[in-house]
Design a protein that fits this description.
With 177 residues, the protein is α+β, with helices and mostly antiparallel strands. It contains 5 helices and 6 strands, in the order H-E-E-H-E-E-H-E-E-H-H. The protein has 2 domains: 2-24 and 104-176, Topoisomerase I, Chain A, domain 4 (Orthogonal Bundle), CATH 1.10.132.20; 32-99, Gyrase A, domain 2 (2-Layer Sandwich). It has helices spanning 2-23, 49-52, 73-82, 105-138, 143-176, and strands spanning 39-42, 45-48, 53-58, 62-67, 88-92, 95-99. Helix 1 packs antiparallel against helix 4. Belongs to the RRF family.
Length: 177
């Protein structure tokens, strides 16, 4: 039974990894994740924007970055420009306002393919994990136990696949907003 809980944990790691990966893909909705990990050369150290500033969202398409030290403003602006995020960056006094432009249909289709590709990679990992778990089941002596274990493994795989599908649907829906 502990093998089943370990298997369940591995499935959770795969689905959580996909969730994290999808959260970094840009949609028509601004999110702090778009800029928070951009690296800034600040006072001789390489730091992320979230380490040197607060990041807020102002609907409908603005990301507002407020550095804790005003001297970091030009360095953050430069880092955002070099990051190639496709944002319109404008410093305004003590803040930097990043406007998220409307995505083209072509870009939406391209990102949709990326989302589906990431999901398929996760499903492949899950299938490989299921096959590995089923190989371990073959060594069991009791036929009833083999059947129950295989059934439990398949139920967990089905749950993980449904989770992946719902993540993909939610992400694709975000592109349309």
């Amino acid at each position: 039974m502990s093998n089943l809980s370990a298997f369940e944990q591995k499935l959770k790691i795969v689905t959580d990894g996909l969730r994290e990966e999808l959260s970094g893909i840009r949609t028509n909705r601004p999110t702090t994740k778009l800029v928070e990990n951009v690296t800034v050369d600040y006072l001789g150290s390489i730091l992320t924007i979230r380490q040197v500033a607060t990041i807020n969202i102002e609907p409908p398409r603005d990301i507002v970055i407020t550095p804790w030290d005003k001297g970091a403003l030009p360095m953050i602006e430069k880092a955002l420009g070099e990051a190639g995020l496709g944002l319109s960056i404008s410093p305004q006094g003590t803040i930097i306002r990043c406007k998220l432009p409307e995505m083209t249909q072509e870009r939406v289709a391209e990102l949709g393919k990326l989302v589906k590709s990431s999901a398929e990679s996760s499903k492949i990992k899950i299938r490989m994990m299921r096959d590995e778990a089923n190989k371990g089941v073959k060594d069991m002596k009791d036929e009833d136990e083999k059947f129950r274990t295989k059934e439990s493994v398949q139920k967990q795989v089905d749950i993980a696949n449904r989770t992946i599908e719902s993540l993909v649907e939610a992400k694709l829906k975000e592109f349309q907003e």
